[in-house]
Design a protein that fits this description.
The chain is an all-alpha fold and 244 residues long. 88% of the residues lie in helices and 0% in strands.
């Protein structure tokens, strides 16, 4: 019996001496391993979304700058529409094209319809409606997968805590089975359990920070689109009144 107790203590001492990340993972219970793998996968996917959104927002801001430069250059809106109608590469140009399409349909009608006050009011409503719909559709694409970052940021610590609680329960069970409460026996099981919490924080902290940053940037970009839609709607309204 004494020999068996010495063997258990010796094995535990070897385990306590090897507390590397890989060893902690390999020594963990199946449920704790599953929690760790889930958190690692969530962290990797979160970073992929973060980099994708950063690149996307940089490209959208560059495209908006180029479009606004062409739009406010003083050239013909019809010429700009002819160039943009076949390649709407960013949401701002898509809003412009959708509004100009309604304007083209209006101006292609007979003159009596053009001068009708009812037709003018209907056109203004349609232009504002199609711009709102286009803006919402484009922003839906920009905001895609942001909910995953929010979910990881809020749920990952609790998932890691679940793995920790499960690991500590197994550690106490092992301690009771070995009938030895020395640090060499206790440390490996506790370390494995706490490693799950650490992974949960590693997944959650970047997701929360990135979600807040990206949400702010996306909100500013959406406001920029709304401002452009309002300005363009006013420009078209003046042209409609002049055409009447």
């Amino acid at each position: 019996m004494e020999n068996q107790s010495v063997d258990v203590t010796g094995v535990a001492s070897q385990m306590a001496g090897d507390l590397s990340v890989w060893s902690l993972f390999m020594q963990a219970d199946f449920v704790v391993k599953l929690v760790m793998l889930l958190l690692i996968a969530a962290s990797i996917w979160s970073w992929a979304i973060i980099f994708d959104k950063l690149v996307l927002l940089r490209r959208l801001r560059r495209g908006a700058n180029q479009f606004e430069e062409a739009f406010w250059s003083g050239g013909s809106l019809d010429d700009l529409y002819d160039r943009m109608s076949t390649r709407t590469g960013d949401p701002m140009s898509a809003i412009f094209v959708s509004a100009m399409r309604e304007w083209r349909r209006f101006t292609s009608r007979a003159k009596p319809a053009v001068g009708s006050q009812g037709a003018i009011a209907s056109l203004q409503q349609r232009i504002e409606k199609v711009m709102d719909i286009t803006l919402g559709r484009e922003m839906e694409q920009v905001e895609r997968r942001m909910i995953f970052l929010a979910s990881v940021g809020s749920a990952a610590p609790f998932i890691g805590l679940f793995g920790t609680v499960w690991g500590i329960m197994n550690a106490f069970t092992s301690i009771a089975a070995s009938q030895n409460t020395s640090l060499a026996v206790v440390a490996p099981g506790i370390a494995e359990a706490l490693f799950a919490t650490a992974l949960g924080l590693v997944a959650a902290i970047p997701a929360v920070v990135a979600y807040n940053k990206l949400s702010t940037d996306i909100g500013r970009y959406a406001e920029r689109l709304e401002n452009f839609a309002g300005e363009f709607s006013a420009i078209l309204s003046r042209q409609v009144e002049e055409a009447a």
